[in-house]
Amino acid sequence: MEKKDIILNIPHSSVCGIFDSRLGGWDRNPHFVNDCVNKWTDWYTDLLFSVPAMPNVIPFVFEYSRFVVDVERLYNDEKGKEGQGIIYTNFDGYKRSEKIDRRKLTNIWETHCMKILNRIKENDILIDCHSFPSELDKDCDICVGFNDDWSFDGRIVNLIKEEFEKSGYKVKLNSPYSNSIIPFKGYNVSGISDSGYNPSYKTNYKSVMIEVNKKIYMNEKRLTLERNQRQWMRWFGCLERIYKKLSELNV
Predict the structure, then answer these.
(1) Residue 154 burial by Cβ neighbours in a 10 Å radius (0-12, 13-18, 19+)
(2) Is the dihedral angle over the CA atoms 11, 172, 162, 149 positive or is it negative?
(3) Is 118 helix (H, G, I), strand (E, B) or coil?
(4) Would you say the pTM of this structure is higher than 0.70?
(5) Residue 44 burial (CB count, 10 A)
(6) Does residue 173 contact residue 157 with C-beta atoms inside 8 Å?
(7) Domain residue limits at 40
(8) Of the chain's two ends, which shows fewer C-beta atoms within 10 Å, N or C?
(9) How would you classify the pairing of strands 142-145 and 206-213?
C-alpha cells in the first residue's frame, strides 16, 4: 500500500497584505487591528502544527491574511451575504476599500486550493489547522471538527480525540466550530480564471479539523508564545503520536 501523507491546511496564520492598497484595502485603524486582526488571526499555527522531523507531514501555509483572502470560504459562500465570503468587505462594522483587485484576489484563493488538490492523493488525510480565542469556550482546549459526508472517518476523529485526552487536554467535537475543508467539493470557478480546475474530480481522502484554544499556547493580550518548556514537550509529543498513528491507519 502506498505511503499515506498527512496534508496540513494552515489558512489563517499570516497577517501579510492587509494594508496593501490593491490586495488588502483596509484602513490602518488601530481599533480594526485590535478588534479583528489580533483576535481572529490564528497566531503561530504554522509553527504549532508543523513537525519537520516527519517528512510525510506536508504543511500548506497560506501566505496572506484571511483579511486579504479567506481560503476557507467556498465560491459563492453563504457568508458572502454578510460581507465575509472569500473576499471580506465588512467585518464587525469595519469596511474595506472597493478599489481592491477582486479578480487577482480570487486567483490567489484558487491557487492555494489548487496546491492542495495537486498534492493530495488517494487515502491521504487532510487536517484543517486552526486556533480560536479563549473567550469562545474557556472549558475546551481542543476542538475536533468534521463533516457529515464522504470525507468523515470516525476512527480518525476518535483517534485524535483520545490522544489529546491522554495528554490531559479537554476535547470537544464540532464545538465551538464544526466541519473541515474539503477542496474538491463545491469549488467551481469557471469563468473566474484559466487554471483548468475540474470541480467534478474527487480523490478519496479524509478530512478533519483541529482547533486549538489560544490560551494553551500563547498570551492572547501580548500575542506572545507560552514559554513553559513542559507545555511544549506535551504538545509536540502528543501531535507526533497523532500524526504517526494517522499515517499507519488503514483509511
Answers:
(1) exposed
(2) negative
(3) helix
(4) yes
(5) 18
(6) yes
(7) 6-248
(8) N
(9) antiparallel
Residue 207: pLDDT band by 50, 70, 90 thresholds?
Answer: very high
Residue with cell 502506498: 2
- Whether the ω angle into residue 59 lies within 30 degrees of 0, i.e. cis, is no
The cell for 177 is: 466550530
Give a yes or no: residue 92 inside a domain: yes
Asked if the structure places residue 31 within a domain, the reply is yes
Pair type for strands 218-219 and 224-225 = antiparallel
Domain count, the chain: 1
CA distances from 87 to 1, 21, 91, 186 (A): 41, 14, 11, 17
**Is 1 within the bounds of a domain?**
no
Domain CATH number, residue 35: 3.40.630.40
pLDDT above 90 (res 199): no
